[in-house]
């Protein structure tokens, strides 16, 4: 039997064709065309205009929702930048204070620093707290 004849007599082939038509929307397209065959041009225009209006409403609501989210995120970013500036100011002050205390301890009680050496700044904090010291230790 020739290969094409085997193909058309195969159950698997016809099962695949039917599933492709149903799953691919082929039957739906045929039914839709048959159902719309009596519609006039004006009916089709009205249906298209209604569909466009619904799409526009949906997109408008979606865009408005996205604008609200973006505005909220901008507020969050501004707040976090403000907190970050405050944090960096506090860290700078704390660093200056502890350097002053180190100098004070050296003057008042030099053996205190020998007994209690200053702790090293962890490497993961160095870029944020003391970037000028990177590579100096």
Automatic annotation (TrEMBL):
Coiled coil: 37-83
Keywords on record: Coiled coil, Membrane, Transmembrane, Transmembrane helix
Regions of compositional bias (Basic and acidic residues) in chain numbering: 121-137
Region (Disordered): 116-137
Residue intervals passing through the bilayer: 13-35
The protein's name in its UniProt record: PRTRC system protein E
